[in-house]
Amino acid sequence: MLYNFLINTFAGAALSGSAASAATVNSDAAANSAATASTALQETIDVLPSTEAAAETLTKISGTEVDPSALEKFMTELPDKALNFGIKVLIALVFLLICWKLSNLIVKAIRKSMEKARSDESIIHFVCKFIEVGLKFLSIVLVAASLGFNSASIVALLGSAGVAIGLAVQGTLSNLAGGVMILLVKPFKLGDYIIEDSHGHEGTVKEISLFTTKLITPDNRVIVIPNGDLSNTSLTNSTGNKVRLLQVFVGVPYSESTNKVRSVLEGAMNSSKYALKDREMLVVVNDFKDSYIEMQLRCWVKSYEFLASKWDLNERVKNALDEAGIEIPFNQVDVHMKQG
Predict the structure, then answer these.
(1) Which of 67, 78, 168, 227 is 20 to 30 A from 159 via CA?
(2) Could you give the CA distance from residue 330 to residue 148 in angstroms, rounded to a whole number?
């Protein structure tokens, strides 16, 4: 038995140690010491349960008969099996680390090639993220298979978990689908100034991720919009083209000559550094209001300079009208009293 073997081994070791000491001390004392050590070891091991006792205990607990010889064999082989499994786990972790490093290198190479091809940054981000997640997932499956797990069972388990999670996060999946549609259809790209019509959010597109789109407002606020909302609503891309038509409306009194007013307004528009001189510029009578004539200024400006050009032209129009002595009318009520 296992514990009898331990008794004989430790007793023999104690006797050998005592015999070595007998060379320098009295032999009788050495023999007594050896006997005392053997007795103490015997008493200590007797306290431990034997293999038969352990097997009997396991039989009572599990309800299934446990063979003492099989238990002893298992305990004998356990250290070697544990060592072999530990080595396998260590090798698997090293392999996983190498795979993740290789996936990062592959993603970097793909990013460089797409940047060299001048692909859109949002497309590059989406493709690289998708490939990175796929490669790392594949490396985890390979490592699990090397440790003895059934790869088909792992994939089936993950598939079932994916269905359950998908039902629980339908909104998130709609945002993912919206992000894919935005990246494929490309209604806008990074750097475009967009206006979301449903809630009136507007700003410059800073980031397009799988689930959300980030906008930076002119006053430097960050707006995060779910891609599901953006893909299912109308929006205005103010900088989708390089140039944009600028329109400014001005009211002038009916008493003023439209030719004079047109000349003044054309001078103000021509003096603006933002108005593109190679495109058509017009000043027209747009409408007749109750108390004034509405004049319209039309010119083309660069899209990214739209706000600056509008502010500049408004100021130039006001200064030009003041210099010409033309008053901009405002709402007023004239009361006429009639004596009866």
Answers:
(1) 227
(2) 85
Q: What is the 3-state secondary structure (H, E, C) of the chain?
A: CHHHHHHHHHHHHHHHHHHHHCCCCCHHHHHHHHHHHHHHHHHHHHHCCCHHHHHHHHHHHHCCCCCHHHHHHHHHHHHHHHHHHHHHHHHHHHHHHHHHHHHHHHHHHHHHHHHHCCCCHHHHHHHHHHHHHHHHHHHHHHHHHHCCCCHHHHHHHHHHHHHHHHHHCHHHHHHHHHHHHHHHHCCCCCCCEEEECCCCCEEEEEEECCCEEEEECCCCCEEEEEHHHHHCCCEEECCCCCEEEEEEEEEECCCCCHHHHHHHHHHHHHCCCCCCCCCCCEEEEEEECCCCEEEEEEEEEEHHHHHHHHHHHHHHHHHHHHHHCCCCCCCCCCCCCCCC
Here the tokens at position 281 are 């510029």
What percentage of the chain has pLDDT greater than the value 90?
24
Length of the chain: 340
Range with lowest mean pLDDT among 137-151, 250-264, 291-305: 137-151
Q: In this model, does residue 312 exceed pLDDT 90?
A: yes
pLDDT(152) > 80? no
pLDDT band at residue 167 using 50, 70 and 90 as cut-offs: low
Reported as half-sphere exposure (CB side, CA atoms, 13 A), residue 31 has a value of: 3
Hey, CA dihedral for 117, 123, 127, 129, is it positive or negative? Answer: positive
One-letter identity of residue 221: R
Q: Which long-range contacts (CB under 8 A, 24 or more apart) does 166-174 make?
A: 171/226, 171/228, 172/211, 174/228
Measured CA to CA, the distance from residue 287 to residue 295 in angstroms comes to: 7
How far CA 225 is from CA of 129, 190, 209, 237, 335, in Å, comes to 20, 14, 11, 15, 53
Residue type, 293: I
Which pLDDT tens digit goes with each residue over 265-298?
999 999 999 999 999 999 999 999 888 999 999 9
